[in-house]
# Entry
Amino acid sequence: MLFRKARMSDTKDIAALINFYAEKGVMLPRTLPSIYQRIRDFTLIEENNTIIAVGSLRILWNDLAEICSLAVRPESVNRGLGSSLVKKMIQESRELEIKNIFTLTYQPVFFEKCGFKRISKESLPQKVWTECVNCPKFPNCDEIALIKNIG
Ligand SMILES: CC(C)(COP(=O)(O)OP(=O)(O)OC[C@H]1O[C@@H](n2cnc3c(N)ncnc32)[C@H](O)[C@@H]1OP(=O)(O)O)[C@@H](O)C(=O)NCCC(=O)NCCS
# Structure
């Protein structure tokens, strides 16, 4: 099992995994161009030449990053991969000296187990919402906000 940063040749597999869950309504979809433009944000787990988990760390500000598009292949859930990927992205934030990581999710209990605390969406700074105009749910965001301080 290999943890690594994503490359352009991974984009179709990343989109397929995210959009498999997006079609079920459990996470938000990603277009290929949005992955191309953010490819450096993505970390993934590979096993037997197959991508089995992906997650992305989007930097918002000098002290704030977001974990988004976290997905583990259905046959690989409950093996600790999702939480390991979250830990990897927390480590990446630490190396970048970013002290707060938040997420908007439909799986708050999973993130609570990773040490995140629920907060009201209104308490997040305005800059968090800049890309939301591209979201199919805009302006009726029903995701739950959680944050973790790693300072
Ligand atoms: C949510 C998801 C990323 C979890 O990944 P995973 O690899 O199965 O999670 P882990 O095995 O690391 O689980 C860590 C802990 O969280 C718990 N957990 C996992 N998914 C959970 C969920 N949906 N709700 C509540 N708890 C959950 C596990 O039971 C485990 O608990 P434990 O430490 O007490 O044993 C994965 O199920 C997934 O890809 N789901 C579809 C996409 C999605 O909803 N992504 C969420 C971000 S938008």
About this structure: The chain has a mean pLDDT of 95. Residues 21, 26-27, 70-72, 77-83, 105-107, 109-110, 113 surround coenzyme A (CB under 6 Å). The longest strand covers residues 50-61.
